[in-house]
Amino acid sequence: MTTAARNDHPGPAAHAAAGSTTYAISEDPRDPDADAAHLLEAAGQHQHTTCGQARKATWNLSALAPLLSACFNHTADPAAPRRGIDAQAYEEALVRYFTETAGARPQDTVGHLTASATDGVLWGLATARQRLPRAWAYASDQAHPHVATAASLLSLPLVTVPSTPDGRMDPQALEHLVRARRRRHNGRSHGAIVVATTGTPFRGAYDDLAALREAAEAAGEIHVHGDAALGGLTAAYAPSRPRWQFEHGADSLSLTGHTLVGSPLPCGAALARTEFAPAGSARGRDLHLNSGSGLAAVLLWARLRQLGHQGVRELVQHALEIAQYLTEELTPLRARPTRGLDAFTVVVRRPPPHLVSKYHLICHGDYARILATPEMTRAAVNAFCAEYRPANPLPAARTRRP
Fold first, then answer.
1. What domains appear along the chain, each with residue ranges and CATH number?
2. Which terminus in the chain has less CB density within 10 A, N or C?
3. What's this model's pTM, rounded to 2 decimal places?
4. Cα dihedral across residues 65, 231, 140, 352: positive or negative
């Protein structure tokens, strides 16, 4: 690689100042070797900053590099003509894995792979809307913003439900809101769509799905969708055994595969009870609209085959241990860390901007979230704690944490 070629791209630290021209796709071709060097350099910046969103893959993908030269695809219709290399068998194995992890039998559910957590929630709410066209949706004030996005796309009224101090949706508040709507409609029941979050984005809390279903009974017919994007695989192996699965009353669920196991491509699964599958669908999705990344399916399949249930269980155990260690190490540093039961997120007082940027932390007001991922080590925790200091003194009257 020549010096001139490498200088064609500034380092990652200069990108913000350089503006969009750094990434512009121009009329003339650019040097692919220089671009490859630039991308590898940018990826290398994340090798030691695993406290927030930016992460590295948790396993060596070099042996699978030739897959990038193949055109993988998977289609909704099993009878459709194949394009490129068919990934259907891998998808079916993954759907079975997620179904079993969610506490259901494959014959009782339908499902498919999704491109993202948002995709799964959108499908789940659309499924619920088809069942209960006049129902309103209810989600916690701690729910992921993609719930509001999906509801908006579907023109589905969304009611925000307060959470308890530990970050879970408050069943009593849900019951009050459901009863209030019924009173406004002279006792008529229109049903309710309840979105239970398994692993809230900021606090990592697990909504009690069974309690929420019971709380919404006054609405009449109920559809409970479990948004288990962040915490589904964690909850499946968590010591406290959170109530989030089909056996606890879920009608549909969406999970992600990349969040815990560290796949470089976002992917997940959407599942529903067989009787609630969208009409005219194969494996629970529209035949005419859904085609997906076969490469994501193959990579996730390879990783889960490598791990097995035991390996995933060990990843969860390690992440929870790191979260506990992080909490203990930050306590003497005026960080005031808080962590929910079996959560792998730790909320601390917000550090200065340069640490927020360096460690890719998600912030809300005076607080920041640290994500204890399976690839995080005690050495990484020690390095972060050595740099940590709160950005500002606590206000005289402390506000409730998000």
1. 67-307 (3.40.640.10), 309-387 (3.90.1150.10)
2. N
3. 0.84
4. negative
